[in-house]
């Protein structure tokens, strides 16, 4: 029997851990045994983690139908006497594999935290070892620039429609169930299968949206949540991408000023204006880089990928210098990191990022008229010459089936700690502010005057790490919102 969508969250909160809980079609998932084994991942094996597979329904409205398996890892709490419970996690994306994520994040956690929690990594449904989506895409992902002309935009429209059609042919109806709400339901099955009444959680970037959705669907199962580099649920996901246009232009200006001060090394201009002009000239025509021809769709993305972290300024300057040499006809070879990026972006090797599209397009509907996107692109060019055609571009979602469920509206009193850098280029600072408003029991930790996306575990910062570790260890949130600044070093 199909369950109405409005009832799904109610049904799923009834875990069999509580005495007298009536059996439901989901009971067999909540009560399933968990069998741990070696992970076969170098990092996880090094830290002594074990892995398991959790069976969940493909379609939660048909719990007796098809099932899939979700891969999880566990780094056990180091002090059983202090153990509080489990901490689930997500590294972002959407579409990011997270099985070994806690192997990295735990390195910035204090002993008080690691002694209290089993740290749980997870490949979300459709990703990695969890029934991965594979649409056979000839390129890596659907997020790219529309290019400089109406003709390049038309090619983008055709290419995006082709990506959506490939997923429909290859994945069929299955892809409609690769959504955030279903991943949140999977998390709750994992909670129950591990024998826990509640979960704590660390999520980064898209992982903040997943965490916020979980708190909305399962507020009574939510313990201590840290949401780092947050998405505004009301703007997810197309709105967040549009927000990133101005933020990346500002970051480009910041980087250009840094590069201009080092003109004897990079020879890209002695002023920020000259450096920016050089970048703008490079993205207008295809450039051959080694064996690759990179067109207007992807040239801006080669800059975009390094802007979120100011520590990458030198690497970005070297990359732009290489692009300038290539545009001048000089024989150049990509650096190892650029070669890897080109292989993924241009050819989808080793595998395309269709899982990202599945989640974004399956979570929320977007406008379908290409003319609307073109108007937005044209309006953006005056102030966003590099990234406006990316941030406002059409995606495969315009050609995707209508989502099975409405987008989740987040508004609850679950306590949480939100971490946001003012210079974030991916999920802009205002998004963290807006999530804080949607979750009034939360506290916002602002990292001021820092260009960084994803703070905890990536950028050493005493103030942020103290706030996060204190909250996980003791449950103590700051009395009010907190402002941090970069460490002196």
TrEMBL record:
InterPro entries linked: AB_hydrolase_fold (IPR029058), Pept_S33_TAP-like_C (IPR013595), Serine_prot/Carboxylest_S33 (IPR051601)
Gene3D superfamilies: alpha/beta hydrolase (3.40.50.1820)
Keywords annotated in UniProt: Hydrolase, Signal
Alphabetical list of Pfam families matching this protein: Abhydrolase_4
Domain Peptidase S33 tripeptidyl aminopeptidase-like C-terminal: 385-484
GO molecular function: hydrolase activity
Family stated for the protein in its record: Belongs to the peptidase S33 family.
UniProt-recorded name of the protein: Alpha/beta hydrolase fold
Originating species: Nonomuraea solani
């Amino acid at each position: 029997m199909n369950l109405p969508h409005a009832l799904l969250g109610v049904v799923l909160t009834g875990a069999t851990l509580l005495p007298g809980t009536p059996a439901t079609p989901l009971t067999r998932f909540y009560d399933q045994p968990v069998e741990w084994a070696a992970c076969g991942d170098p990092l996880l094996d090094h830290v002594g983690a074990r892995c398991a597979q959790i069976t969940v329904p493909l379609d939660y409205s048909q719990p007796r139908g098809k099932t899939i398996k979700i891969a999880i890892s566990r780094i056990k709490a180091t002090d059983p006497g202090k153990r509080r419970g489990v901490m689930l996690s997500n590294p972002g994306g959407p579409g990011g594999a997270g099985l070994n994520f806690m192997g990295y994040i735990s390195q910035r956690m204090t002993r008080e935290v690691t002694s209290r929690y089993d740290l749980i990594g997870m490949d979300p449904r459709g990703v990695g070892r969890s029934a991965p989506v594979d649409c056979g895409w000839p390129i890596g992902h659907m997020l790219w620039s529309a290019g400089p002309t109406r003709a390049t935009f038309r090619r983008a429209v055709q290419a995006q429609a082709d990506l959506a059609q490939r997923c429909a042919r290859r994945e069929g109806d299955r892809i409609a169930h690769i959504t955030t709400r279903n991943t949140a339901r999977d998390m709750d099955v994992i909670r129950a299968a591990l024998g826990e009444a509640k979960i704590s959680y660390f999520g980064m970037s898209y992982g903040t949206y997943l965490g916020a959705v979980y708190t909305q669907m399962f507020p009574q199962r939510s313990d201590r949540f840290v949401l780092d580099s947050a998405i505004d649920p009301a703007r997810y996901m197309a709105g967040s991408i549009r927000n990133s246009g101005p933020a990346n232009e500002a970051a480009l200006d910041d980087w250009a000023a840094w590069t201009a001060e080092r003109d004897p090394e990079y020879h890209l201009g002695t002023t920020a204006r000259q450096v920016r002009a050089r970048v703008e000239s490079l993205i207008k025509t295809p450039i051959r880089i080694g064996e690759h021809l990179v067109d207007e769709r992807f040239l801006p993305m080669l800059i975009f990928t390094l802007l979120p972290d100011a520590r990458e300024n030198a690497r970005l300057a070297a990359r732009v210098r290489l692009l300038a040499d290539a545009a001048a006809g000089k024989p150049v070879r990509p650096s190892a990191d650029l070669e890897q990026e080109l292989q993924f972006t241009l050819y989808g090797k080793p595998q395309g990022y269709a899982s990202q599209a599945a989640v974004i397009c399956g979570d929320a509907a977007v406008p379908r008229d290409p003319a609307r996107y073109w108007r937005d692109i044209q309006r953006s060019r005056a102030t966003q010459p590099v990234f406006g055609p990316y941030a406002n571009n059409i995606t495969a979602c315009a050609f995707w089936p209508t989502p099975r469920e409405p987008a989740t509206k987040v508004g609850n009193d679950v306590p949480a700690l939100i971490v946001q850098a003012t210079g974030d280029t991916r999920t802009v600072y205002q998004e963290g502010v807006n999530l804080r408003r949607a979750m009034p029991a939360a506290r916002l930790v602002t990292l001021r005057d820092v260009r960084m996306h994803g703070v905890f575990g990536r950028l050493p910062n005493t103030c942020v790490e103290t706030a996060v570790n204190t909250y996980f260890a003791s449950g103590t949130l700051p009395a009010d919102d907190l402002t941090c600044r970069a460490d002196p070093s």
